[in-house]
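A quick aside before the break. I want you to see a complete sequence-to-structure record at least once, exactly as it would be stored in a machine-readable document. Don't worry about memorizing anything.
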Amino acid sequence: MNRDHRETAARGGLAALLACALVAASVAPAHAAPSALPDAAVSAHDGATSTAEAAVSAVDAATTPPTAGTLGDAATVDLPSTSREPLTITAEDAPTLSIRLPAGDGAVAGSTEHPGVRVYDNGDGSTTVPVVAGSTVRIHTVLRDRTAPEEYPYAVSIGTGSSLSLTDDGGAVVLDPAGQPHYRFAPPWAVDATGAAVPTSYSVSGTTLLQHVDLSSAGIVFPVVADPQPVLWPGGTGVRFDRAETRAIADSGDASSAAATLCGLIGSAPGAVACGLGAALVLRTKIQPFKDAASNGRCSQINIPYGTGPALWFTYEVDC
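That is the input. The structure line, written in tokens, reads:
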């Protein structure tokens, strides 16, 4: 099947799924739970420096969001011996993902008192603590006090020509040169020592994911723990919109008007009303990447992981 035929089939499938969105049950998010460090991780750091002990204790005590996904049962995660080297993830049927840690130029040695946990003192009031547990990795950064930076860069690559885009839920997706997704970063989070949420967000600069943590509130109780979490992109189907289509959707105004434009573009005449209502439901929260893509002269894409409702679909901008 050539690309045009695949695209036609995908657009027809999207129209049907948008109609079904009216009755599809959304997956409710799970409640936050304590961070799952490997058993006895804290006690294993008896010989560590006080900075490492404090960082691991903060991570262990943090109330974190539920795991957003996994890297697959066959995945391996290599934690670097110093922060000058990247953390690497090798997953089945996916290219190797490399992630440079925030203090990459500082070549900070990693403390290795427990398997699956490594501690890098960034020397700036923050400490990075990647934790591997089963088929997941969470790259915790602990902000000890107000002297810590409010921005943390993670340079990301899956090889030459790879790219990085923000998703509508505040997370990010890692794309190959053809624009196909392979990994994503769950929406960012940060909490203080009381478990209270601290404002945080991602931005993208080239292929670097920047986590911003707002420490301006006087009520923050330190330490603060923030956590990018990379997971394997779930299988699914995707529909891409070219520059003109992206601009048309972005310029449509409210979600209802944008939905009518989208359904017209994907040719949903047999179920136009249902498609329009379903698309309006989806675009109410997922239209921003269309607007960003239009502003940047790029294309846009909707990806639908298999077996999910609209709450777990993703929209993001891509190169044309």
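Two observations worth writing down. Helices lie at 3-20, 50-61, 243-250, 255-265, 272-286, 288-295. Confidence is low (pLDDT under 50) at residues 1-9, 21-49, 268-274. We'll return to this after the break.
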